[in-house]
Amino acid sequence: MHKSIIIGTGPAGLTAAIYLARANMNPLIIEGMEPGGQLTTTTEVENFPGFPQGIMGPELMDNMRKQAERFGAEFKSGWVESVDFSKRPFKVKVEGMGELEAETVIISTGASARYLGIPGEQDNVGRGVSTCATCDGFFFRGKKIVVVGGGDSAMEEASFLTRFGSSVTLVHRREELRASKIMQDRARSNEKVLWALNRTPLEVVPSENGVKGLKVLNNESGQEEIIEADGVFIAIGHTPNTGFLNGQITTDANGYIMVKPGTSETNIPGVFACGDVQDTRYRQAITAAGSGCMAAMDCEKFLEGSAVHDWSESLDK
């Protein structure tokens, strides 16, 4: 029996682990297929406070893991197959470990960026291909940038990236965009935003030091084209990693866990959520870490028998 099991090891899960371990709660942290989360695929992180010269993403996550271990957190690697939150103690079934029991569970499984699945894409993540304009836009100051997508996220990323790039070409496979009118108007009014609509991405073209451009199919002419760019930003959305919950936790229409505003509480008392798995807006390492702190403190108060109540009825109101 564990006092608390944390599922996921990005900035949120590791921060929760640090706080719970310092409180002598000996949390068990289940690392999934991507220990450390999305930051392990990031090169230099320049906007995490405390590192004036920046820090490599994998190094930052490794430091946070060691900090949690220092205070007694236990880490195990495995894939969570299912959970049973119908009653306490909660049950967490992990591949290769069987069924684990816990008085509380913190879910910090994050959200995975959607990729196009084209050649050259995965090979160049961190070398010119990115899914986060806020994280990586600075590295493309004065350079040509491509943004792929047709929704609000793509419009927002394109507009943001004009602060850095000499030009931003927005690529979408259809002539019509899915984005709201206000977001489209904002992007179209920016003279730095160029448009390559009705074009299907085929390949990220590499160069010796990163990316040379994006090969696309012109759907009207049937001809292949290369849009020159130093950076290719994929903005086609994220998928929250909540499939293993089997509908036991209340989520929004896109699968993100819903928490009581201002807390990390889910609709099930004793189950908490933090990080990108419940964040549809900010999705930054620092906000994930902050929510991990909240989850740990909410968890500790719950185990002390104070302050946490079932608020699931309010979700329907």
Summarize the entry for a quick read.
The protein has 317 residues and is of the alpha/beta class. It has helices at residues 11-22, 57-70, 133-136, 152-161, 181-188, 285-303, and strands at 2-7, 28-31, 44-45, 55-56, 74-77, 80-84, 90-94, 98-107, 111-113, 129-130, 144-148, 167-172, 193-197, 199-207, 210-218, 224-228, 231-234, 238-240, 271-273. The protein is built from 6 helices and 19 strands.
Written account of the structure:
- The protein is an alpha/beta fold.
- It has helices at 11-22, 57-70, 133-136, 152-161, 181-188, 285-303; strands at residues 2-7, 28-31, 44-45, 55-56, 74-77, 80-84, 90-94, 98-107, 111-113, 129-130, 144-148, 167-172, 193-197, 199-207, 210-218, 224-228, 231-234, 238-240, 271-273.
- Strands 1, 2, 5, 6, 7, 8 and 19 form a seven-stranded mixed sheet that branches.
- The longest helix has 19 residues, at 285-303.
- The mean pLDDT is 91.
List keywords for this structure.
21% helix, alpha/beta, 317 residues, 5-stranded parallel β-sheet, 29% strand
Helices and strands, with pairings:
Layout: E1 2-7, H1 11-22, E2 28-31, E3 44-45, E4 55-56, H2 57-70, E5 74-77, E6 80-84, E7 90-94, E8 98-107, E9 111-113, E10 129-130, H3 133-136, E11 144-148, H4 152-161, E12 167-172, H5 181-188, E13 193-197, E14 199-207, E15 210-218, E16 224-228, E17 231-234, E18 238-240, E19 271-273, H6 285-303
Parallel strand pairs: 1-2, 1-8, 2-5, 8-19, 10-17, 11-12, 11-17, 12-13
Antiparallel strand pairs: 3-4, 6-7, 7-8, 9-18, 14-15, 15-16
